[in-house]
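Trying the structure run again after the queue cleared.
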Amino acid sequence: MRPSVSSHPKLDSRLPARTVAQAFPLGLLWGWLPCGLVYSALATALGAGSLLGALGLAFFARGPRPDLALDTAVLLGGSEIALAIAAEFGAPIPLAVLLLPLMGFGMATTSAMANTVVQTESPEAMRGRVMSVYMTVFAGLSPVGSFLAGALADWFGTPVSIGLCGIVTVVSAVAISFRFGVQTSARRATVRVRGIAP
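Done. Tokens:
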């Protein structure tokens, strides 16, 4: 006797799949269509923004630009805050698809330009050590940040977690800019790379 999907004979007769063997592929297909397509659209939107950011740096960047890294960090944080607000008020998924390219652009541009600035501004004899510390902080602490973001999402909800991460990003970028005078020093560095007398 083949196992039935339910324990009720009348219910079995109304189901599109009457056995476990029939229900399994149908469940995979139905589970992928709504969830998989939505996730694919969101991941594609984020990836498209990241690709645009990488291509923009490759074709238009002229030397290290700390100010650009901070500007795109503010863009990243701001788009996170906007996404959190949209999610909190139940905005439709297409709005998230419109916001995620901004996040991807900001994320890719900030990380790539920060890497460039660290390498070019480090003394040649110390560059390997500086990069090892940088990568330890940049990549090694990612699991800690993921844990904290997940804990916040579990305690207060996903929109709150995303919004707080965006706020921290924006506040950090603005604080670094004012604390170290990045706008002025970045202008001088760009002028120096282009060979123009300041």
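Residues 1-7, 189-198 have pLDDT under 50 and may be disordered. Worth checking whether this holds up in the mutant runs.
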